[in-house]
Input
Amino acid sequence: MKWQKKDLLGLRDLKKEEIKILLETAASFKEVTTRQIKKVPALRGKTIVNLFYEPSTRTRVSFEVAAKRLSADVINIAAEYSSVRKNETLNDTGRNIEALKADLIVVRHNAAGAAAMLSRHLNIGVVNAGDGWHEHPTQALLDIFTLAEKKGKIEGLTVTIVGDIAHSRVARSNIWGLTKLGAKVIVCAPSMLIPNKIEKMGVSVTSNIDKALSKSDAVNVLRMQFERDQISAFPKRLNYFKNYGINQERIEKTNKDIVIMHPGPINRGIEISSEVADGLNSVILDQVTNGIAVRMAVLYLISGAREK
Ligand code: CP
Output
């Protein structure tokens, strides 16, 4: 099977084989990133625009590094310093970027479906770097890549995703990707942070983190988004850490070699202790590093598909 898609909008849309192509391509680019000269000419002459309507450190920087390692020209647009401030619509911004002869847009937006809307209106490729609560496909791909690197496989593993499942695009993309590749997924949170009918996505649900950890090979700890109105009502942050926070005692109690993941940014002492975040089982910074190879694979495959 060959990569055919002009866009990457989410993992829900992808077949298992397509996810495998992305991960295999990322593995070959990871080798490139270990060379003394970490650059290949694959996208020389291409222009990639990073269009970010929300704050980002990891995603924006690693898309830029990935594009530069592929020898593409990169332009970063932060919406707050662009004509978006003069009420230009997302669609008009995208069409103008296309008129400026960019080859691909990487977009982060607070509205679910923003990347899909752009892809319907543009001929150039569109990569979703996070749209509202909907999907964050490259984050899930780098999570899965890192877990496979650590455990040697994905099929048959059990992964707990703990935290604000309701508002998490990372959770949704991880659930689609992991279940398609044959992993079991447990979601764990207080009931107010679990979306209705999430079992239909093929996951099991619990509010007991110790029970979930006892069955798990890995835990992906989500950031508690206390800045959101719905969660600021959650009674006492300290109760969250006591009942759901990932600390050393909880991990040791399982007697298992659990891989600790977090998409970042971390709230230390809220959803995870510093001891665990910086401990031996943590792959949090490996996830960040692997984001470069994964995003190189995405940019390379999407750009190639445009030329068929
Ligand atoms: N994980 C993630 O999306 O981080 P940023 O918001 O820093 O890009």
